[in-house]
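quick q for whoever's on today - can somebody do inverse folding on this one?? i tried earlier but teh output was garbage lol. tokens:
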């Protein structure tokens, strides 16, 4: 008897729930349309908020740059260095480090303009420390002091890199991508970066400065604007 009573209650509910109700479908469609419109409005508002925030950030950045123009840092005194060290010091001075805080210089606010990117003095120092560490390893391995040879090689690399940075015929994006491609952990191969930038520019000129040219692991645009793709992705898209 209890079972019959339960079914007698559940059966009408089940039939009501499963009954075809055109009015119910219309209500549901209206609700879905309303929710869709709300989502569209929310996305539009989010996009507008983002655009306003980015515009404000750009305005603040522009105001900061206007009030804090880039200024070159003072040259290193190389008068007390020997010939090899003096040439290295000259190479460092010629790189063109700048800062927006000339009176409060730190290794984080002094930087080198590499295209559209900034290579901070701190990051540069870390790269030099890695170079010096490798030089000591090679010297110890061969039981020979390669200090002067290492400094001379690094001096040439920095001079080559400096020439690339000052070359206006090489797009800024090419310079930045070349530096990324020549960065291996803490180590930066400045000579390799210079050669990659020159290679990319020459190959681009051979194809009318149009399209893409591969470097090491990525392909960069010849015109200096546009996205950078991995070599594999660029080949799949027919860019190479």
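ok took a stab at it. sequence:
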């Amino acid at each position: 008897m209890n079972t019959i009573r339960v079914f007698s209650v559940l059966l009408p509910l089940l039939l009501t729930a499963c009954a075809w109700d055109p009015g119910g479908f219309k209500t549901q469609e209206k609700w879905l349309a309303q929710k869709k419109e709300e989502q569209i409005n929310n996305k539009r508002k989010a996009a507008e908020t983002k655009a306003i925030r980015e515009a404000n950030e750009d305005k603040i950045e522009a105001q900061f740059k206007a009030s804090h123009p880039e200024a070159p840092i003072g040259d290193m005194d190389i008068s007390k260095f020997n010939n090899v060290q003096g040439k290295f010091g000259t190479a460092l001075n010629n790189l063109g480090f700048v800062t927006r805080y000339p009176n409060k210089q730190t290794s984080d606010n002094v930087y080198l303009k590499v295209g559209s990117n900034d290579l901070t003095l701190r990051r540069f120092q870390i790269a030099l420390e890695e170079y010096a560490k490798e030089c000591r390893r090679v010297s110890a391995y061969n039981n020979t002091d390669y200090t002067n040879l290492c400094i001379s090689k690094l001096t040439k690399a920095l001079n080559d890199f400096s020439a690339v940075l000052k070359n206006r015929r090489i797009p800024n994006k090419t310079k930045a991508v070349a530096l990324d491609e020549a960065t291996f952990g803490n180590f930066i191969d400045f000579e390799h970066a210079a050669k990659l930038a020159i290679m990319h520019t020459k190959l681009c000129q051979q194809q009318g400065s149009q399209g893409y040219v591969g470097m090491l692991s990525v392909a960069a645009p010849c015109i200096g604007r546009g996205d950078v793709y991995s070599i594999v992705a660029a080949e799949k898209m027919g860019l190479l």
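fwiw Residues 64-236 form one domain. also The chain is about 65% helix and 10% strand. so keep that in mind when u check it
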